[in-house]
Amino acid sequence: MRRLYATPEQLSAWTGQAAPPGAERLLARASEDIDDALLTACYAVDAVGGPTDPKIAAALADAVCAQVEYQAATGDDGTGAQSRWDSVSIGPVALSGRRQAPPGPGEVDLAPRAHRALTRAGLLPGVIW
User: Fold this and answer.
1) pTM (predicted TM-score)
2) Is the distance from CB of 13 to CB of 64 less than 8 angstroms?
3) Whole-angstrom distance between the N-terminal and C-terminal Cα of the chain?
4) What is the pLDDT of residue 2?
5) pLDDT at 53 over 50
């Protein structure tokens, strides 16, 4: 079962703009990215795998919204194809080239703000005690 950690309404509140067309698909892909980043995280879940602690749920929602925002800013549609771009233009913003190699297969290109939200919640780095 696919878990969604954020809603289009939460995404809209995060970005201050209306949720884009296909927001549910973008949120689903971003939720998968967050799940992949949290492979070693431990937190209490309910019967369907959702977090039971409201602070953890809020951190996951923030991380997913940050991931969608990051992907939009880098020209990624959630497919991982952004590693192939050489230049991206979004309105008055233009990006060109890459500062680092694209993530390898199985690696997550995690948004910096998503990483910080997960770290503040104690979910990263994943440590099993």
Assistant:
1) 0.78
2) no
3) 27
4) 76
5) yes
